[in-house]
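I'll show a record.
***
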Amino acid sequence: MKRVAIIGAGFGGLAASAILAHRGYAVEVFEQQAAPGGKAGNLRIGDWRFDAGPSLFTMPFVFEECFRRAGGDLSTAIQHEPMELITRYFWEDGTVLDAWQEPVRFAAEVAAKLGDPAETVERYLKWAKKIYDTTADIFLFGNPWDPLNIFRTAGWRALAGIPFIAPFTTMDRFHRRYFRDERTIQLFDRYATYTGSDPYRAPATLAIIAHVECAIGARNLRGGVAALVRAMHAIAEKNGARFHFNTPVERIIRTGARVIGIATEEGELFFDAVVSNADVTHTYLSLLQSESEAADRYQRLEPSLSGVVFYWAMRETFPELAVNNIFFSRDYRAEFEEIFDKRRCGYDPTLYVNITAKFDPSDAPAGGENWFVLINAPYDDHQDWEVEVLRLRETTIAKISRMIGRDIERAIVHEEVRTPRTWRELTNTNHGSIYGISSNDPMAAFHRQPVRCREHPGLFFCGGSAHPGGGMPLATLSGMMAADAVTRKLT
């Protein structure tokens, strides 16, 4: 029986392990943390439960296909349902806008609250859908480095559509062609942060994310993202994958360039293939100790933004808020200049507040809520995060209290905090970046690490820092692609 090692139990590693074990390989997963999930961990503070990282469940068809390939059924593994209201947006001028799941209703809400015509919003979303239809087969579900893709229908369509998908126009510049109100522009510019990027530099092609969220839609997960992690871990174990938790991989073993195994504190272990769900840069520099061109290249690429997260156990409920909430900064451009140019959090930051207890009351005690508060932050570059956290806490509490008209500090019972340095220490991500490299370059899709490592035969990659990118569905797709690539090699 062929043996496969998987380094890391994030979404990519879980997907790859479940599928490869189902196909009959002897799969062993090595995870440095005590539980699966990677950045998508589960956090408890007393009677309050939190998703430690990602919170929005989109593209459920990706997970359905993953479970199908692993011999399972997603519908019996987790409980989820469409969100009627995806996000509630707040501005300092008192405007509150509800982004409804239904596109026509959402467009009407924008027209009523922000003034940009509903027809314009609907036309924009149709353009975003066309980007998705044009590019998804190559850049999400396929291999953009495979010359054979060019000769397939999807490849020709993607090439022919390059001028249309606006890769050399920034998101912000393109949105100004559609919308007149600064608040509408800010709302759609925000989707750049889903890839850890700056809307004033990232290509307009990232409007694909608006289609994924606003048209394909988002869903509520009973038990949060942690329930999905548990389900993927369970099917991998059921299929025979063995998990080694609290077991960091110290290095990848090579003979010349070829990868033949891994080493942990327990010794050397040899495998027919190794899949790294660890950060790409960490894999090259620390695990491979490689001096290859690829290793040098990833050191030069700009890391994505990171985040400071406050986990607040609240003893009160806040009917003013939805499950997902955004409190915008007054000057969005200045905020991103501070993050990417000055390497510090904005002095008037945009805040994301996720409260899963509004959907699943078991996530907090009666009369309370679980607040996950995310603030966009630069990657870790020797900043004094203790000082930053103190400043951000004061700013965040004052901002939310002012914008909803309630003193929130008195409701905070317990608190935990994670910073870019925390993310780096927990998951070995490059400088604590959440999404690998940024998409501030129109060629970013081609800069990402392919699933199959050309420099080191026998090594494969998956996860948010590899192709096709960050976020739960894309990391899962990368794990599915890695499983297929390993199967082709070992068959």
